[in-house]
Amino acid sequence: MRELALHLLDIAENRVAAGAKTIQIVAEEDLINDRLRLAVIDDGAGMDAQMVTRVTDPFVTTRTTRKVGLSIPLLKAAAEACNGFLIISSAPGKGTRIDVEFQHSHIDRSPLGDLPGTWLTLLVSYPAIHWIFQYKNSSSCFEFDDVLFKREIGDFPLAEPTILTFLRQCLQEGVSGIQSSVVIQ
Amino acid sequence: MPTVKSLEDLKKLREEALEKRKLKIASGNVQITVAMGTCGIAAGARETMKAILDTIETENLTGITVTQTGCMGLCEKEPIVQVMVGDQPKVTYGKVNPQAAKRIMQQHVVGGKTVEDLVIDL
After folding, report:
1. A171 phi and psi angles, rounded to 5 deg
2. Residue A96: which CATH number?
3. Which of A1, A124, A152 sits opposite B14 (nearest CB)?
4. Chain A positions in Cβ-Cβ contact with residue B61 (cut-off 8 Å)
5. What is the pLDDT of residues A5-45, one digit of tens each?
């Protein structure tokens, strides 16, 4: 995957398939400690301890169309190649939390990529999911919790021109706002 | 933490969206599905999705439901887009890059004519 945001999209899609109702995606650029952190937290089915250890094996998958499941193994390999790691915390019925960390300045670290575009895709494609998106750096945080938005919009379809413009701008401005507030020491 | 938008903005948004919906309806009820499994994403399905949403926004199309699914098992034909217009049979398109997506939007979704050279059999 050319961008880390694409890994997030991939993992989020898996969380929806795992029956999650609320999914939180966090991206953090901690330039002070030279770390880039990603997290996907959900309240889906969860995995038992044995599945947690097995899921990083590319030949382990719950899907029936193919015999490989590459999402987690690919991301884990990408993180470990950048002085990082991938940790899964999960239990049956308790949801799942996936934490991934990279050395921010590592030469092999893929760019974070298009977060707003990724979030927009998820928001529109899975309107029944409660999405919470966070993007932060060492000094500020942008959070988009779709609860307020959905309360006002009701069950109005999201793939409508005015709604798409609003969401796209909201997410883009939110992320750019944080990026322009970076303080380099 | 900066707030996203004010409550007034959201209320106004709902009103504007309702108004526009009355103005222009795409040819019947349209359902578009983009396959977004690992293979699809690696092949560029997100850019395909963005092109579809972009067309909806700029061409002012309404009445379209856009959703995504996981891998369909046809990884070599990704990105895959399925279009269902009204009660016509579902059409599956393969190798849909952003330009192909725009063609499908114009010719099939708006124009009502299947884009034969992109169709694949599931």
Report:
1. -70, -45
2. 3.30.565
3. A152
4. 161
5. 999 999 999 899 888 999 999 999 999 999 999 999 999 88
Side by side, the strands of the sheet bearing B91-93 are: B64-69, B30-35, B81-85, B91-93
Residue A78 lies in a domain: yes
Q: Does residue B107 form part of some domain?
A: yes
Domain span including residue A79: 4-179
Q: Is B36 on the interface with A (CB under 8 A)?
A: yes
- The confidence score (pLDDT) of residue B73 equals 79
Q: How many domains does chain A fold into?
A: 1
Q: What are B18-32's pLDDT values in tens digits? A: 776 655 544 458 999
Q: What Rg, from alpha-carbon coordinates, does chain B have?
A: 16
**A·B CB contacts under 8 A:** 117
Asked whether the beta carbons of B110 and B93 are under 8 A apart, the reply is no
Cross-chain residue pair B70–A13, CB shorter than 8 Å: yes
Q: Which residues of A touch B34 (CB under 8 A)?
A: 125
Q: Is residue B21 part of a domain?
A: no
Structural domain contains residue B6: no
Q: Is residue B101 within 8 Å of residue B51, measured between CB atoms? A: yes
Give yes or no for A28 touching B (CB within 8 A). Answer: no
Q: What is the CATH number of the domain that holds B84?
A: 3.40.30.10
pTM of the complete model beyond 0.90: no
CB contact under 8 A, A124 and B53: yes
